[in-house]
Amino acid sequence: MSEEKKEDAHLDNSSALATSLPHPDGFFGADKTYGGAFVPPPLEPIMKNVAEEYEKAKIDPQFLADLANLRKTYIGRPSPIYHCQNLSKKLGGAQIYLKREDLNHTGSHKINHCLGEALLARQMGKTKLIAETGAGQHGVALATAAALMQMECEIHMGEIDIKKEWPNVRRMQILGAKVVPATHGGKSLKEAVDSAFQAYMGDPEHMLFAIGSTVGPHPFPMMVRDFQAIVGFEAKEQFQEIAGPGKAPDILLACVGGGCNSLGLFTAFLDDPNVKLIGVEPAGHGLDKGEGHHSATLTLGKPAVLHGMKCYTLLNSQGDPASVHSCASGLDYPGVGPEHSFLKDAARVQYETATDEEVIDAFFELSRSEGIIPALESAHALAYAMKIAKDMPEDKKLLVNMSGRGDKDLDYVCDLHGDQYGIGKEGIFAGPTKHSK
Ligand SMILES: *Cc1c(COP(=O)(O)O)cnc(C)c1O
């Protein structure tokens, strides 16, 4: 295959992608339990239009060539696979490998779908990208894509998150995006979604609501999955260079928030029954601590309609979306993508959890044994991998999606857990100096 053909192949209906293509109405699986597009009537034609334009784009050679070129020259793809020899030796079991999405431009996998969404928006003649953000990671990646495409960008963010994630607010502003505070209710992610949605309803003709994961109404769960699937298609090829022709990892692991980095890694392997797939959710303070202490949607949720899709959802006693917690702000969401909901019921993916404590331990373990500081989100997948690797034979291979780097988490980790890991908090190590004018 020529280079170009290879790049295109992953957006084709290859057998792997076809195994998880939703029905045309956006429902996944034979019994159509999850997915769909539950939107207000005025938005129905708009969503249909996005779906139609995406169906055209994904077989348009120019669109695919533009995307392939940006992946290579802008994101820095392919991201390498790295063998954690020190860590594997220390654990004394299976070999742990990382798919290094943390090395992408902007520091995580999110740029993979943001560039795709921005390219599609440009192709559709839209002039503005709009989205919500929690911790600011999706906002930064989208603001980056918008700057590149020379489009307007508006990011809605809860007032509380703005205060908490100030460096990301500054990044977005420097990149030319307008950051709009959501000031009502809990002033956090859910309110940011409401606020962005309201702004989008004002002029959906000229804007694309660029959703940040494999969630929301059809076609977003499918489209974001397709843009992320490059991760697994690359990994499949790279792994054969490592382990020999036809060889695949024994187990793939990825953290699950909305579900896009995990589907990104898993999709290329869905049709290979020899590869075990494990999604790791946040157990936070512990699953037994109850509502508000974890964010284990697939483990403890029930099917419901949330943010335009039917999916597993954590509900409170009133039947509303529950409050959730995780040390990783990219994972604290009471819903999850419809494809994951389907894959759980189909038992193709196994869903497990990791507690905050196990995650902090994995965060330091990788930092100190390999010199790689992981995002707290990614450290969930690593924590579970470390747990099972110990009891597996040395010739088994685990591939963990390192979805992002931990730069954003340094203060949080050191403030809360520094003393357990020998990081001083006295004197000049007390914390960052406030700059005066
Ligand atoms: C946002 C984020 C996640 C969670 O999102 P998914 O859609 O579940 O992938 C995971 N890792 C990092 C680094 C993130 O920024």
Automatic annotation (TrEMBL):
The keyword Lyase applies. PROSITE patterns: TRP_SYNTHASE_BETA. GO terms for molecular function: tryptophan synthase activity. Its EC number is 4.2.1.20. The keyword Chaperone does not apply. Residues 75-404 form the Tryptophan synthase beta chain-like PALP domain. It is an enzyme of class 4 (lyase). It catalyses: (1S,2R)-1-C-(indol-3-yl)glycerol 3-phosphate + L-serine = D-glyceraldehyde 3-phosphate + L-tryptophan + H2O. Keywords: Amino-acid biosynthesis, Aromatic amino acid biosynthesis, Lyase, Pyridoxal phosphate, Tryptophan biosynthesis. Its cofactor is pyridoxal 5'-phosphate. Pathway: Amino-acid biosynthesis; L-tryptophan biosynthesis; L-tryptophan from chorismate: step 5/5. One of its GO terms (cellular component) is cytoplasm. Pfam families: PALP. PANTHER family: TRYPTOPHAN SYNTHASE, TRYPTOPHAN SYNTHASE-RELATED. This is tryptophan synthase. It comes from Seminavis robusta.
